[in-house]
Structures are given as C-alpha cells and as structure tokens.
Amino acid sequence: MRIAILAHVRQRIAQPFAGGMESHCWHLADGLQRRGHDVVLFASGDSDPRFAIDPVVAEHYERTFPWAEHRGTQPLIAHLDAGYAAACDRIAAGGFDVVHNNSLHRFPLEQCRTAVTPTVTSLHVPPYDALHWFVAASPSPRHHLTVTSTRQLAAWWPKGAPAEASVLHNGIDPARWPFGEHGDGTAAWCGRITPNKGPHLAAAAARRAGIPLTLFGAIEDPDYWQAEVAPLLGDGVAYGGHLAGDALAGELGRASLFVFTPCWDEPFGLVAAEAMACGLPVAAFDMGAAREVIGEAGVFAPPCDVAALADAMVEALAIPRRIARNRVLRLFTHDRWLDRCEALYRSVAAATATLAA
Description:
Layout lengths: L1 E5 L13 H15 L3 E7 L7 E6 L3 H4 L9 H19 L5 E4 L9 H4 L4 E5 L5 H8 L6 E5 L2 H7 L8 E3 L19 E4 L8 H11 L3 E4 L5 H8 L7 E3 L5 H10 L2 E4 L9 H8 L4 E4 L4 H5 L3 E4 L4 H11 L4 H11 L2 H23 L1
Parallel strand pairs: 1-2, 1-4, 2-3, 4-5, 5-6, 6-7, 8-9, 8-11, 9-10, 11-12, 12-13
Helix pairs in contact: 7-12, 10-13
C-alpha cells in the first residue's frame, strides 16, 4: 500500500525520542517500510532522513517557537494551520491508499478530507476542548479512530464509542528491549521531564525507600527541572541524560525496578512497556491506563502519594522479571500492533471502494 503518516510536529520524528508520540510515528514508519509498504512521513523537515519526508513545517516547532512561546499563541496556531492545510492538500493529491493521522490537528479530521483519502486517526491524548468537537463529528466508514487504552475510549466517548472507534494498544519490538535475567538493585525512571510525568515524585519516593534511582529523558520544562527535580539529585538519585533507544535499553536492562509516576490521565505509558520488556517490574501511580498496561507486573500506589509509592517500590522488587517480559510478549508487541494497523487500513480502504462503487 502507499501510506501517508501524518505526524505531530512539536518535536522531530527521530531518536532520541522526545516522547511516546515521536516513538510511535518512527516505529510505525519503520515497521510499515520493513513490511514492504511505500511510506511517506509528513513531519517536521528535520526528522529522521532514513524516511521519505514531506515536511509539514521546515523544523519542529519547539525550535521555531521555544518553550516560553509555544503554549497556544496565535502565531504558532497560524504556523501550524498553514503547514497542515498544505500537507493535507498534498496527501489528497498524492495517490495514497490511506493516511495514518497522528497529528492532533483538526484539519485531517474533516470529512471533506477523509472522503478523499481513507484515514485512520490515532488519538494519543485525553480529550481536550480544541479537538473534542472535531473528533466527535469525524467518524465515518472512511475514517476509523483509535485510542491507546480502554480508559481513553471511555474518556473520548463517555456515552459509548461509535463503531468506527476502537482501542489500539501501542506495541514495541521486544528485540530492541532485550531481557535481562538479573538487575543491580537500582531503579530507573524515564520520560519527558515535565510536571505531569512526576519525576520529582519518583525521586522523593526513591529516597524514602532507600533505592538508588536514575532519571532518563529530555528536560522539557527547564523551570520545573531547576525548581523541583535538580534539588533532589544526589543521595542515590542521578540524572542519566536523554538517551537513544539502544543506550536506554541497556541502562534499563541493568536495573531491577521501573518507577512510573503519571500525574495526569496517562493514555498508555509506552516507557513502562519498554521497561517491562527488559524484565523490570514496575512501581506505579494508579493513574490513567497504568493498570491496563502494567497489570500483574507491578504494584500500584494512589496518585501523587510518595510514601505509598516508596512502599510499592520495595514490594515490586519481589515480582519475577519474567512476569513483566511475558506480559509484553502477550499483549504489546510491535508485530501485533502492525497487524492491527494493516487490518484497519484495509478496512477503511475497502469501505471507500464500496461507497465509490
């Protein structure tokens, strides 16, 4: 199939990944190419050159609009609207069999566009006002929407999801996250370093539990880092940097425990699945889709409860590492995810052909 992947452009689609959405798009493009599809990635122009890139914008918008300038300002909105309008027009004229929309922008949801190119839209966030109405008006036989967990399905459609919406769990390639039989007694945390990911709470809990912890990830919010996280470094808490996949997998595989601290309605938690593939049991806040992803491989604490999280860390160390790995192999593999994506593409393409007949 000839497939357009339309990405979010806040960050570049390249390693080291800024977060789960960037990882999702990269692995989607890579996996579909490996399966023989003709893939064009509509993303920021500074994304990974291994893909055929059709730039939505010349560079990711956190470079064009730094942290202090990118939070809903009118110049940013105009910049993104112009980029996505032109990209959607090029997709419509490009002879694509299907577009997989990961953009979180309203234009690709419009039925005047999905009627031209069959579309699968993946929603990677909880519902929010700027997009909610456009999502609600968009389902059709030519347009299927996915969310990453059953919790998010209920959040987007509290009165019941339409037939054209379903859960599509994220998937990872277990070969990229090799299993380790033993850990070194330390804990790891990784993700975007921002308040809603809660690394300061992970650090405070690790200190309380007496378990050394290393934080990995991009410092997205420098003010938060300086005020809340940096003062907790030392006494067993360290920052390991923002690492690409292979290096991060190596660091995770050496640890004995993963700490997962969402402070928002986390739609999935890809970092938890990656750590579990390496064999790490998880101590987690019971927030968002954490329980759906982690299941029997973790111990849960009430959201933002540092004392309970410290206790969960100690308890989770007793969970056998194979339990974590086996859960990923059963539910969250890259091949399982790609199989489902291809089935959805065939479904919307067939519906379009039927309606055109």
